[in-house]
Amino acid sequence: GQNIDQPTEMTATEGAIVQINCTYQTSGFNGLFWYQQHAGEAPTFLSYNVLDGLEEKGRFSSFLSRSKGYSYLLLKELQMKDSASYLCAVIGAAGNKLTFGGGTRVLVKP
Amino acid sequence: EAQVTQNPRYLITVTGKKLTVTCSQNMNHEYMSWYRQDPGLGLRQIYYSMNVEVTDKGDVPEGYKVSRKEKRNFPLILESPSPNQTSLYFCASSTDFSGGGGYTFGSGTRLTVV
Question: Where does the pLDDT of residue B1 fall: very low under 50, low under 70, confident under 90, or very high at 90 and above?
Answer without folding.
Answer: confident
